[in-house]
Amino acid sequence: MYGGAAACATMVPPPLDVPAVAFLRQTAGMESQLTNISHVIQLAVAPVFLLTAIATLINALNSRLGRIVDRRRVVQERLPAQAPDAAATGQVEIRMLVRRSRLVYHAIFCAVLSALLVCLVVAGAFLGALLGVDIARSVAALFIAAMLAMIAALGLFLREVFLAVRSATHNQL
Question: How many Cβ atoms sit within 10 Å of the Cβ of residue 65?
């Protein structure tokens, strides 16, 4: 009955198509995929906080744009009743307000573009993990583009604030 070491060496392992083995392979694959997805979720937390910051910036820019539009309406309503020299000053202020509103509009555009690119970063990270594709370079390029758009938005915002303070009309009613 017992054939010794030679008999053990000639034993053939059972086929690997046994349902239990296939189930274990599938379960291990799912666990690996869940580990990848949970890792991607951990990495996506930072961009989500960035989206919150961008939304706050867009809100501040929107408030500034509303204030500029309100001030422009006030100046335009006062223009017809003013003397010619005061009307010229009003026209200069309106031109400055138009310039400031354009800066804020472009800043909002850049901030929204940045937010959209951050969303693409998060979506790309998840798609890469789910499909098992290495899209690290694409995700990095999208993130760099998002940061460049954010830098542009902040630069435009800073320029608008500078113009508002420099114009010396920010304290007038």
Answer: 18
Write down the domain spans for the chain.
43-166
pTM for the full predicted model = 0.72
Rounded CA gap, 54 and 48, in Å? 10
**Do 126 and 40 touch, CB atoms closer than 8 A?**
yes
Average pLDDT over all residues of the chain: 82
Cα three-residue angle 118-31-49, rounded to 5 degrees = 20
Task: Report the first-to-last Cα separation within the chain, whole angstroms.
Answer: 107
Report the percent of the chain where pLDDT is more than 90. 48
Query: Sign of dihedral through CA atoms 86, 91, 95, 97?
Result: positive
DSSP 11: P
Mean pLDDT score, 111-115: 98
Q: Amino acid identity of 7?
A: A
